[in-house]
Amino acid sequence: MDASPGILIEGARRVWRYQRVLWWIFVVNLVLAIFSSLPLVARLSRFAGNGFEMERFAKGFDLASFLALIGNPEAAFFGGATSSFVLAFLFLLFMLFVTGGFLEAYRQDRKLSAAEFFHYSGAFFWRWVRLLIFLLIVLVPISLAASALDNWDLKLWSDAPQEKLGFWVMLCGLLLLLLVLMAVRLWFDMAQVRAVAEQEFAMRKTLFRAFRLTWNNFASLFWLYFRISFLAWFVLIFWLALWLHLSGAHMGRKFLAFQIVLLWWIGTRLWQRASETVWYERWTETQAVVAPVPAPVPAVPALPAI
Amino acid sequence: MLHTPRRKNPLRALPVLIVSLAAPALAQNAAPSALLVPGPLSQRVVAYQIDARLDTEKKTIDAIETLTYHNLTGQPQDTFPFHLYLNAFQPKSTFMREVRTGNAEFQWEDKYRASEEIKSFEVAGQGDLTAQLHFISPDDANPDDRTVVQVKLPRPLAPGDSVQFKIAFHDQMGQVFARTGYKRDFFMGAQWFPKVGVWWQGAWNCHQFHDDTEFFADFGTFDVRLTLPQNEVVGASGVEVASVNNSDGTKTVTFHGEDIHDFAWTADPEFRVAEDYFNGSAGRVKIRLLIQSSHADQTARHLRIVQETMRRFNDWYGPYPYAQITVVDPPHGALRAGGMEYPTLFTADTTWWMPEGIHFVEFVAEHEFGHQYWYGMVATNEFENAWLDEGINSYSETKVLDDIYGPDRSMIDYWGVTLGEPGYQRLSYLSAADRDPIARFGYQYLNSGSYGGITYGKTATVLLTLEKIIGEDTLRRALRTYFMRYRFTHPTQEDFLKTIEEVSGQNLRWYFDPAVYGTAILDYEILSAASDRSDWYVKNPPKAKDGETLYRTNVVVHRKGDFIFPVDVVIKFDNGEIVREHWDGRDRWVRFSYDRKAKLVSAQLDPDRAIWLDRNFFNNSYVKDGPPEGQHKLVHYWQVWYEFLSQMLAWLA
């Protein structure tokens, strides 16, 4: 089945219609980010206050002062890194939790009440945890491939007859890994969409079915994901250019610009999920239309559910 | 004008004078001169003639070395040690043992193996002494180290006499591990021939080759004939005086160097040659750049920084008397041969991607050219006093690069990120601040990190801080005096320190002792600063009015470290008044108190930011209601990092 533009538009429409999900995710992320930076604020105030040395960061960015700051044990600049990792992990758990809720909203294409949303969120949470474990297993060979690429590239940087060969191999290798990761995510997203649509409990089974489905329709599904990802990365690069352009005196604007980018990133991720839900809906409808009418069979006792 | 300090008897100078006067006429038909001025400029203890053949397939060198040694030690000599540096690249050598000690992850690979084998050793008039050769390990008694070999002559060499050694040797080059070797078609011939030790301070100075140390040798002349394939582009110390194509597809290139103490060469068919000139006070110097074809777009950058550096060294410290400087750009994968100095030749360091705003090309080229002065001409002992070449050179690097690119951005000025040379050197120092004293032998440092941080970074930082005591101009004059007085000799660290004291007219032992010979840390801080109403004891005091209410302001300055240094403190009040205090810094703390009808705005230690040795600049000031932008920016960066992290993790959901 082709991923027609209609799917993208319909996916975007559903994200827009149930945008409360988007805002909630954004706000939770922002609040956690603020929490993650609070220890730093306290440490900086205690260590450097608003002394003259801090002015070296106000206009431009003095690398020597920054490295001296982070290298000073009294400053303990990275003292809050552990808590930040914990907060980021909490955000991961939050996303695992709400995924069932928003996928159900996209599937039913209607606004869920808070009770319904949390009901579906809770109902799918442990299933997503199991899927996460499978995903981590799948990521192991990819990590090994990345490590092998790194080792190979290191050798090329030193030993290849052409100086730039190492760079191009690394660039192409990273792009390839990125595409592989996108494909893996596509597969696991399909498993989630299917699990919600079929109210599936068996995650290994749904993962296997999702793999077959993704494999058989890879081109159209991947093209769907790729376009949305491209938009996400494009905006990120645009932000980077803007960020570099804005001087240190425009911290408020920089902060705002980055939050807009994050909103866009979260939005594009939801857009991928919504589009895949729409795609699955239409695929199911297609299957119903083309499925042959089964020949009448003699009545037999019903088989137990598998 | 050149100064040759050891030529005291005018009659002794007569032959030199005659040769000097005749030199311009002779030069019409003679080979190119290695010097721009009449020589000799040094005592010329040694004269090396080497006839070498490079086998580019086997990566070997077979050579005959004829070394004439002049005994200027003032006493008979019957024992001569020689460096065989290439033998360091063997797994049991002291060098490799130290590499492994410094990095437990290091794995030996046989491609690094190199060797330097003496096939025969004859002494003119005394016969073949090959059997007399034996390895010694004066530094660590490692029986497996073969980097120093010694011979005892049957008849001692009388003071003032000369002896001629004829040495046949065979080098097996390894892949570049440190400074020397090959990589694909590139060859760097450094530390490649048996080199006699230096009689210095009443004894032979001939250390083994160590991971963290460099070299030490006597001045002399070098005449080197290199035979190698015709497609090789060759560069070397000194100047090329002849090149002849041979019938077997090879060519023989002859180089001549005077008043230098080492000889290095390089060959690579991939080199592109670019030439330029620098007009210095000693004459016109040819700059010969051998650059990789993949870096050809950086040719102008290399030539420009060499010229800019030469101009400043010429103006600030003294003339460059050699006819040529050769700059070598090693290929990718051979960067361990990069960033290294040899007399009249140095290796640079770059990659195909090096934006203009990252002054890495300039940083390396400037540093290595600087060594032509601080090592090449002022030939200090790099084994024992590495700071005298690396450290002084790092200091002059800060001055040159700051002068070219401006302070605070002389290393990096790219995408809003800036890094200045003094800040970089200070960071290097901070990485190992109290590990080793500067004046420690190079191979006795804790590790490579400490060696680098102290020898380069701390010395530069000590000299930058010294500017605050004696002034930048005075220090520059002291360096010029030091250079002009000690060029073409082997001065000691005390020679350097005494020269600074002499030129500045100050006894600076109070500073040099902790800074050079000690490991004390310098750190002063504003411990507290506050204004308090003088009528604090009055219940329900009247509302404070600007310019009318009296305050008592206390500022406490604390010496956190053991390094004692005088400091200035600037205190600002909200009526615009500024008070500048000076404290000798001896006690642990000092309190400055003021009764003013104004409140404190800020208190700042070292307001000129001149005490670069201060370990922590962040505790040097207190600003009431200071601008928060800097802090906001760092917090914003932290949030950006965190939110990216959270998004990456959320991708798993």
Summarize the model shown.
Chain A has 306 residues and is mostly helical. Helices cover 79% and strands 1% of the residues of chain A. In chain A, helix 6 crosses helix 7.
Explain this structure.
Chain A contains nine helices and one strand; from the N terminus they run ααβααααααα. Chain A has helices at residues 5-17, 19-47, 63-71, 81-108, 114-159, 165-198, 203-216, 218-245, 251-290; one strand at residues 61-62. Chain A has one domain (5-284). The model of chain A is unreliable at 297-306 (pLDDT under 50). With 653 residues, chain B is α+β, with helices and mostly antiparallel strands. Among the domains of chain B are: 403-516, no CATH class; 524-628, Immunoglobulin-like, CATH 2.60.40. Chain B is 26% helix and 30% strand. Chain B is built from twelve helices and 32 strands. In chain B, α6 crosses α8 (448-470) and α9 (472-486) crosses α10 (493-504). Classes of the chains: A mainly alpha (306), B alpha+beta (653). Chains A and B meet through α2, β1, α3, α4 and α5 of A and β25, α7, β32 and α12 of B. β1 (61-62) of chain A pairs parallel with β25 of chain B.
What share of residues of chain A is helical? over 70%
- Total number of helical segments of chain A? 9
Low-confidence stretches of chain A: 297-306
CA gyration radius of chain A, whole angstroms: 24 Å
* Overall helicity of chain B: 25-40%
Mean pLDDT of chain A: 89
- Series of H and E elements of chain A: HHEHHHHHHH
- What is the 3D form of chain A? globular
What Rg of chain B, in angstroms, do the CA atoms define?
A: 29 Å
Average pLDDT of chain B, rounded to a whole number, is 94
Query: Which percent band covers the strand fraction of chain A?
Result: under 5%
- Derived structural class of chain A: mainly alpha
**Count of β-strands of chain B:** 32
Termini gap of chain B = 76 Å
Number of strands of chain A: 1
> Largest interface: which pair?
A-B, 74 and 58 residues
Enumerate the strands of the largest sheet of chain B in spatial order, edge to edge or round the barrel. 5-4-8-2-1-14-17-16
